[in-house]
Amino acid sequence: MNIENIYKIAGIHPVLGDKNTARLVINKDKIIDSNTVEGLVVKAREIKDGVNVEIRLKKNTVIENPVHLCFGITDSQAIQKIIINVETEENSGISILAHCVFPNATDVKHIMDGKIRVGKGSRYSYYERHIHGEYGGTTVIPKARIVLEERARFKTEFELLKGRVGTIDIDYEIVCKKDSVMELATRISGTGNDVIKIKEAGQLIGENARGVLRSKIALRHNARAEIINKLIASGRYSRGHVDCSEIIRDNAVASAIPIVEVKNSTAQVTHEAAIGSVDTRQLQTLMSRRISEDKAIDLIIEGMLG
Amino acid sequence: MGILKIKSLSLNLNGKNILNNLNIDLKKDYIHAVVGPNGAGKSTLGFAIMGLDGYRNFEGEILYNGSSIKDLNVYQRAKKGITLAWQEPARFEGITVEKFIRVSSKNKDLKSVAGVLEKVGLDPGEYLERAVDRSLSGGERKRIELASVIAMNPKIAILDEPDSGIDIVSLENIFGAIKFLKASGSTIILITHSLAVLKQAEYAFLLCSGSIIQEGTIQEISKYFKGRCIPCHHKNLPEEMGS
Q: How far is B37 from chain A (nearest CA, A)?
C-alpha cells in the first residue's frame, strides 16, 4: 500500500489542494503535505524517527472546516514519534480530524506525545481514527497532558475499529478549570492477542467544571483490556461521570477500574461499569428475527461501539 | 390444517413444574390467544415454542408442519418462520430503528422499512434515525419490535402481552398490525391476560398454573376468564384442581 492508498483510507483526498482546509500529512518521519488557514499557525519539523508539530490557534479565531491530520506509515517496520504541542488562545474554536493509518504494520511503533492547552472560552475537538492492518504488529502509545482554562470545552473521540489493534497504551491527563467541560470517548475493538490499556485521569479543579470519561471496548479471541478511569472532583459544584462498557467473547479478558474521588461536598462524580458477554435478550431477539448468532453478536457490538 | 402441534409438553424450571402436559393445536392463519392470570406459564409457553435458551429442555414434543423442532435453537426456528415479540423488548444501544427493522426484513428497501413503521402507527420521519435505546419509551419500543416482526413476514408470530405499555390511542394501531400480520399469512399467538387483546383472537386457550383448563371460541373463553379467573385470587391451582 502506498501513500495514495493512505490518503484514500483517511478520506483526505477531497481536501488535498483545498486552500481553505488546513492539513498536515505525515508518512513515517516525513512531512508529505501541509496547508494552513488564516489564524492558525502550524509549524512542523522533521526530527529523528518523527515529526515535531506546533499548532497555535489565534485569539478569537474559529476555523470553519475541520483540520485534517494524517499520520501514516506505509512500511511494515518503523517507528513514528509525533511530538505535538497545541495551544488555542482565548475564544477560539477548532475541530481536528486525525487519521492514523498503519496498513502494513508487522512491527510498527507509533508514539504520540501531546501537550494541549485550551484557552479561555475556547472549543477544541479532536477525533482520532485509527486504521490498522491485519497483522497485529502495531504498537500505539498516545500520551497527552491537557489543560482546560476557564470556560474551555474539550472533546476527544478515539476510535480503533478497523484492523488489529496490536498493542495500545493510552495515557491521558486532563486538568479542568472553572466552568470548563471535557468529554473523552474511546471505542476500540480488539481481537487475536491484542492488548488494550487505557489510563485516563481527569481533575475537575475549577468551580462548575464538568467531565465525562467514556470507554467502550469489544474483545474477542485472546484479547485483553485494562481500563483505568480516574476522575477527581475538587472544584465547587463540579460534576463528573465515568462510564465503561466492555463486551467480551471467546477467551478475552477485560478489567475496568473506575476511580472516583470527590474532595468538595458540593461536587459529585458518578460511575458505571459493565463487563460481560453479549446481552442474552438482545441476542435472542435478533436470532428470533432470522439473524445468525455470529451476525447478531457483530451487530450488537457494532451498535455498542457506535 | 394445523401448523403447530404441542404434544404432552411439560417443563420444569429450577425444580418447579411450570407447564404440565400441554396439548395444543394451532390452526394455520388463525389468531390464537393464550390467556390466563399472571404466573400461569403463558410466557414460558411462548419461550418454549420459540426455543429460547433455558426453555428447550422439556418433556413432550413440538411439531411444526408435522416435524419436530424440539432440538432446534432460536435461530433455526426463526429460519423456519417462527418469531417472538417480547413483553418487554430489549434495548439496542447504537442501533437505529431503521437498521433494527431492516436486518429482520425480507424487503430491505427503505420504503418497506418505513411502511412497517406506519403499520404500527409510528412516523418514519420521526423514528427511522433514532436508536432503539433508552431514549425510547417502553411503548415505542414495543411498537418498533412489532414492526420488525411484520417486516420479517413470519409464519408464526408469538406476541407476548402486545398491549403492555401501550396507550389507549395506540392500542388500535397494535390491533390493526395484528390483523395485517394475519392478512399477510402469519399464524399468531397472542399471550395475554387482557380481555381487549383476547377479543382480537379467533380461538383461545385458557392456561392456569401451567395447565390448559379450557379451549374454545373467544366468547367461551372470555366468559370463563371474566367469571372465574379474574375473581380468583390464587395463582397456583385452578379452582377445579385445587378442590
A: 24
Pairwise CB contact (< 8 Å): B84 & A306: no
Domain residues for B190?
Answer: 2-88+154-242
Confidence (pLDDT) at A1: 53
Handedness of CA A230, A138, A167, A135 (dihedral sign): positive
- Domain assignment present for residue B107? The answer is no
Q: What is the mean pLDDT of residues A31-40?
A: 93
Residue of B74, B89, B95 with shortest CB distance to A303: B95
Q: Is residue A122 part of a domain?
A: yes
- Residue A200 predicted with pLDDT over 70: yes
Q: Say if residue A15's pLDDT is above 80.
A: no
C-alpha–C-alpha distance, residues A183 and A202, integer Å: 10
CB B93 to CB A285 under 8 A?
Answer: no
Domain with A87 in it = 3-278
Closest C-alpha to A191, from A227, A155, A167, A156: A167
Tens-digit pLDDT profile for residues A128-140: 999 999 999 999 9
Considering the domain boundaries, does residue A295 fall inside one?
no
Q: What is the DSSP-derived secondary structure letter of residue A66?
A: P
- Residue A299 included in any domain: no
- Residue B101 domain-assigned? no
Q: How far is B241 from chain A (nearest CA, A)?
A: 35
Q: B7 has which bridge partners?
A: B61
Tell me if chain A has a CB within 8 Å of the CB of B103. yes
**Contact flag A292-B75 (C-beta cutoff 8 Å):** yes
Q: What is the CATH number of the domain that holds B22?
A: 3.40.50.300
Residue A294 contacts B where some CB pair is shorter than 8 Å: no
Confidence of residue B2 (pLDDT cuts 50, 70, 90): confident
3-state secondary structure of B181: helix
Are B94 and A302 within 8 A, CB to CB?
yes
Chain B contact present for A19, CB below 8 A: no
- Whether A279 and B75 lie within 8 Å, measured CB to CB: no
Contact residues on chain B for A299, CB-CB shorter than 8 A: 95, 99, 103
Alpha carbons within 13 A on the beta-carbon side of B5: 8
* Number of domains chain B is built from: 1
With respect to residue B125, please indicate whether it lies within any of the assigned structural domains: no
Q: How many domains does one find in chain A?
A: 1
Q: For residue B100, is it within any domain?
A: no
A282 closest CB neighbour out of B79, B90, B152: B90
Give the chain B residue whose CA is nearest to the CA of A294: B75
What is the rounded distance in angstroms from the CA atom of residue A165 to the CA atom of residue A139? 8
> How sure is the predictor about A2, in pLDDT bands with cuts at 50, 70 and 90?
low
Q: What is the mean pLDDT of residues A67-80?
A: 93
Q: Tell me, yes or no, whether A289 lies in a domain.
A: no
